[in-house]
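@channel sequence for tomorrow's demo:
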Amino acid sequence: MLDRLTRSIEALLFASDRPLSLQDLCELTGCGPDAAAGALEQLREAFEEIGSSIILAELAGGWRFVTDPSLGDVVSQLFEDRRPGKLSRASIETLAVIAYNQPCTKAAVEAIRGVDCDSAVRSLLERGLVRICGRQETAGRPLTYATTDQFLSSFGLLDLEHLPRRREIDEILASGPPAEESGELFPHEG
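C-alpha cells (generated this afternoon):
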C-alpha cells in the first residue's frame, strides 16, 4: 500500500498537463527533496511490479506519467481526429538546426539549410516546439530561437544533453533502414 505522500504525488502527476519538477512536487506537498524522490521511486516500482501500461518518466526537466511506448499503436487511435498534421521535412530540418545550435537566428538556420525558413519557423512557433528567446547583439538585433519544454516532451527527452550526438546519428545511418519503418522520427523503447 502506498503512503499518503506517494499517493499525493501520484495524484498530482496524474492531474498535471505538464511534467512536474522535484521542486514543484516539494512545493505542492510540503515535503523535502529526498522524500519526494523516494515517493517517485516507490511509484515507479509499483507500476513496474504490476506490469502497468503506465510508466513514470522523467521528461523536460520534470516527471509525468506516460503510456508504455510499445502500446503506441493502440493509444494513437484515440487521437487520430485530433492529431495535428505531421511536420514537413522543412520544419523537421529547421527544428534540428535550432535544437543543435540554439540560441540561433533565422539567418543562421537559413545559412545552414540553404533555403528560406520563414514558414517552417512560424509553424514550429505555432506548435510550441520553438520559442523566441531574445535578440542577438549584432546589427539589426535579429530574434533568436530555442527549443521549448514541449519539444523535449514531444521527443521524449529529459534535456538537450539527451539529443543524439553526431556519432550516434552516423552509426544509425550506417546501419541502414530498420526492418520495419515505425514512422517516428526518434522512436524509443519503454
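heads up for whoever presents: Residues 179-190 have pLDDT under 50 and may be disordered.
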